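In the previous chapter we treated chains in isolation. Here, by contrast, the input contains two separate entities that must be folded as one system, with a combined length of 534 residues.
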Amino acid sequence: LATRLRPRLKTARQGFVWLVGAGPGAADLLTLRAQRILHEPDVIVHDALVPEAVVAMAAATPPASMSASARAAIRQSQDEINAILVREGRRPEAGVVRLKCGDPLVFGRAGEEMAALRAAALSFEVVPGVTSALAAAAEAEIPLTLRGTASTLVFATGQDAAGDVLPDWAGLAFSGATVVVYMGRSVASRVAARLAEAGLNPATPVAIIESATLPGRRVISGSLTDLAAYGSGPDSGGPALILIGDAVAQGALGAAEPLVPARELAA
Amino acid sequence: LATRLRPRLKTARQGFVWLVGAGPGAADLLTLRAQRILHEPDVIVHDALVPEAVVAMAAATPPASMSASARAAIRQSQDEINAILVREGRRPEAGVVRLKCGDPLVFGRAGEEMAALRAAALSFEVVPGVTSALAAAAEAEIPLTLRGTASTLVFATGQDAAGDVLPDWAGLAFSGATVVVYMGRSVASRVAARLAEAGLNPATPVAIIESATLPGRRVISGSLTDLAAYGSGPDSGGPALILIGDAVAQGALGAAEPLVPARELAA
C-alpha cells in the first residue's frame, strides 16, 4: 500500500495528506483523481455534508481507523480538525484524506488546514473539485457568464451579508455580474432589502437551488423582490445557493417553484 | 447504444446533446459522469484547448463521425458551432457531446449553445466540470477564500479589462476579494496600471498560472507592481490565469518563477 500511496515520497517516514474536493454531492461528480485517491487512504476525515455515497467510495475494504476519525471531525472546530490532520499525518507512512464538499479552496477552510500542515512540515496535495455553484447552475441550465449580459462571476457567502451594510459585491451585481451566494438562506431577506434600497432593479432574476445534485433537490425562481420571502418558509436543511443576475433568466426555470407562494400571488 | 444513451428519452426519435465540462486539462480531473458520457456519443464537438488525452477517452472505438465534426468545430464561429450542434442533434437517436474546457457555464459560451438547442427543441443536459481557476489554485496551494482575508471570489476575463476604464471588479479587489482573471495575459499590464492608479496596494500579491495541470505548467509570482512586466515576456501559448489578492500570498510560491526577471531586480 505504501508505495501506491506515495509515489513521490519514496523514502518518507511520515505520512501524506490529500485535501480532496468531493464535489457538490452526487457521487459521479467526483473527479477521476479524487476517486483514485479515495481508494487508498488509511484515514478519511470528512465533513457532515459529504454524502455517505461518496465516503463509501473509499474502498470496499474501509481503512481500519476510518470510522473513528471520520466521525470525530464532523462536529469539531476548525482547530480540532487541523489537529486531527496533523496527528494522523504524522503517523509513519500514513495516507490521510481530508474530504471536503465542493472544492477545497472555495469556502472550504482549506487555507487554514494547509497552514497547519505546513507548520507541522507535513507534505500534502490539493485535489480540486466541482464547486456546488457550477453543479447548481448546470442542473438549472443557468449560464453563469453570458456574452453581453454577465461578464463577471462572483462567489460570496451568506456570512458576508449578515450585517446591515450593503455587501461588498453589490457593485458587481449592478454591473451585470452573476452573484452566487453560498449558504445564503438565513440572509436572503436582508440581502434582498439591501440591494433593493441601493437601487438594484427589483425585477432582477433570482434562482435558489437547494441540495444541488442530491435527492431532495429544489429549484426555486423569482425576482429580487420575491427573495425577501425566502427563508421564512420551511427549511429543507439542505445547502442553499442563491443566484442573482440577469443571466439567471436564461435558465430552464419553467418547472421551478415560485419564490412567492401561490396564495400570496392571489392575495 | 440508444437505450444506454438516453434513459429518459425512451421514445424520442431525435438526438440528445450533452454539454460537458472537460475540466482544466489533466485527463484525471474529468468527473466520473463526464467520463461515462464520453464513452457513448456518436459525435463529439470540442474546442481546440481540450487536450487530446481527454478527447481520446471517448471510447476505444471512436464514433464514426467524430473526426470530421470534432475538427470542424475548432476554428469555427460560435454561430457555426451552434449550427453543428443542432444539425447533429437532429439526427434520429444521435448522441452528441459538446466537450468544453473547464466548466461549460463559466466563460464557455454554453449560454448561447443552450439557447440554440432550445430554439431547435432539442433535449440537452449540462455536465459541470472543474473550472481552471480551481485547479490552478490547487496546484499553487492558494486558498481562493480565506477567513479574515478573502471572503469573496471573483472570476473575470481579460476581455472585461481590455478598455481604459477600471474593471468593474476593481472595487472587490479593494475589499479583499480574490480576483481570478481568465485569459488575462494580453491585458496584464493594463490591469496592473488601472488598479495601481485607483490606489490598490502595489504590494498586493499576484500569481499567474499558465497551462494549469498540463505539461508545460508555469507558476509565476510577484506583486501588483510586477504584473505590468507580464505579457512582455515570451508567450508559452498556454492559457494563463492571473490571481490577485492578499490570500494569494498564502500559496506555495517559494518555487515559483518571479514576475520580474532577475536581471531587472539587479539593475
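The radius of gyration of chain A is 21 Å. Chain A is about 30% helix and 20% strand. Compare these points with the single-chain example from earlier in the chapter.
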